[in-house]
Amino acid sequence: MSAQSIIDQLDTLNREDPPTYDVPHYLGNFRHKCSGARNISKPIDLKELYIVDTEETVLTTGETAVLAVVARQGKCPKCGQTARSISPHIVDSAVRPPLTGRVSRD
Ligand SMILES: [Zn+2]
Fold it and tell me: Residue 38: exposed, middle, or buried by beta-carbon count in 10 A (0-12, 13-18, 19+)?
């Protein structure tokens, strides 16, 4: 694979299952007007979506790195609206590994 292929994986997911809201890759939750709770503002908890490349990429510095796409996604349990990052955030997986714990992946 390549950096483009991990970006394509996120694009495919967003095309096949479009989120209600586009959220930045760093948010922990996203408030929305919830139709399941009398249209008041409710948070959607966002978990990390971390897609790792299967092979190394040669960087412009000449070094190699295994790249990953970092995004966030979540779904409101009351109304079913969804949130996911549309724009990929690319990281070196050795420098920025997947999160663990409460804010980790689904
Ligand atoms: Zn809701």
Answer: exposed
Cα(93) to centroid(ligand 1), Å: 33
d(CA 101, CA 95): 18
> Which tens digit of pLDDT belongs to each residue from 66-99?
999 999 999 999 999 999 999 989 999 999 999 8
Q: Where are the domains of the chain?
A: 3-92
Q: In one letter, which amino acid is 46?
A: L
The Å distance, Cα 7 to ligand 1 centre, comes to 28
Give distance in angstroms: CA of 106 to centre of ligand 1.
18
Q: How far apart are CA 42 and CA 50, in angstroms?
A: 25
Whether the CB-CB separation of 70 and 53 falls below 8 Å is answered with no
pTM: 0.88
Mean pLDDT of 6-16: 96
Place of tokens 């790195």: 65
